[in-house]
Amino acid sequence: MTRPLILTGIDLPLEPSCGSTIWCSDVYTRLAGHGYDTVFAHLPGSGTWKHGFTTTAPLAAAKAPYGPGFDAYADALTDEVAALVRTRRPDLVHAQHLGFGLALAFARTASGNVPMVSVAHGTDVIAATEHPRARAVLNEVVDASVSVVVPNAAMAKEVDRLTGRRHTGRLVVVPWGVPLPAAPTAHPRAGNRLHLVHAGRLDANKSTVTAIEALARTEGHRLTVIGSGSELGTLTRRAAELGIADRVAFEAFLPRQDLFQRFGDFDAMLFTTRTLEAYGLVAVEAQAHGLPVLFSDLPGMAATLGDGGLSFPPGDAAALATLIDRLAASPATRQLLHRGAVANARGYDIAHTAAHLAALSLTAREGAR
Are 115 and 365 in contact (CB under 8 A)? Predict the structure, then answer.
């Protein structure tokens, strides 16, 4: 018997440049165990990533974010997706990102032909809040969806607001997850000088500058920033301006397994996103490996990170500095947060995410029949 086929994808290169592509690889690898095959569509990229997708489909359209070229870009993607639907004959479409070009192409092609489940990732919801065209695209994608997957209640509330509460019943919270290690690799260490880590994409929303400015308000602690992005030059200059270049180390993006091996070198993770965060993939991964997380108190993040972290107002470097010093002064607090982090992460097993998405996919297919 032929296994049902899911057509999905993200209009990004096929590389682990963001949490969305990593999450998709984790989930769709495991959906194979639930009887599904996957075709993952993507823009041209390095092609060296060891992902978990069954089959990939490169797209040729030249990416054009919101602006004068967006409509032509979406039209080109729609033609390519239509060709994929004709040749691959998918049983189901999963549209990743509610407001981006490829999701729009999926919505326009699948509508009336193939049942579609869409998945919110955070950056799409941010874009829809800031750009009227992105909001219109998000609405068109949700209109075409049988159900809309959101990682937490805070994201569900935001999508509901952006769609005028017309499709509240389509919103389904499916908690995201990470591959859990057999045992934590980071453990509380003696001493009152902390070695902190910030990992991820270096862009304005991730607000890594908050971590650097917080460090400047402390004495003796060190920070390692692991990642790449448009803000790197600004961040290195800011560290020099504050006179802490000797206490801030910048390292290039690391593949996931290499990053996991580094977690044992640190005492806590700083998670400084300024606005919306869908899930906080790297923060939960850090918790799974035993690291407490000092995090921006964004909608949904306190519920996601539970007892394994301490929160501060987004962008408030002084408040973050106070938390760093508090953590440094109390070995008992570090031990308590370590245990809380490990326990909390156990509730975010990627296997559970895949099982939820498989069940939702079955419901969508049965409804279409």
Answer: yes
The stretches of 163-312 forming alpha helices (DSSP H) are 208-216, 232-241, 256-262, 281-288, 301-305
Per-residue pLDDT averaged across 272-282, rounded? 85
Q: Take residue 70 and report the two structure tokens written for it.
A: 């967006």
For residue 334, pLDDT beyond 80: yes
Q: Are 197 and 266 in contact (CB under 8 A)?
A: yes
CATH of domain 195-345: 3.40.50.2000
Q: 144, 170 in Cβ contact below 8 A?
A: no
pTM for the full predicted model = 0.89
Segment 22-68, tens digit of pLDDT? 999 999 999 999 999 999 999 988 778 888 898 999 999 999 988 89
Token readout for 299 is 């909608």
135 C-beta neighbours (distance < 10 Å), count: 18
Q: What are the start and end residues of each CATH 3.40.50.2000 domain in the chain?
A: 5-177+349-368, 195-345
Q: How far apart are alpha carbons 102 and 57 in whole angstroms?
A: 13
C-alpha span between 120 and 354 (Å, rounded): 15
Fold of 5-177+349-368: Rossmann fold (3.40.50)
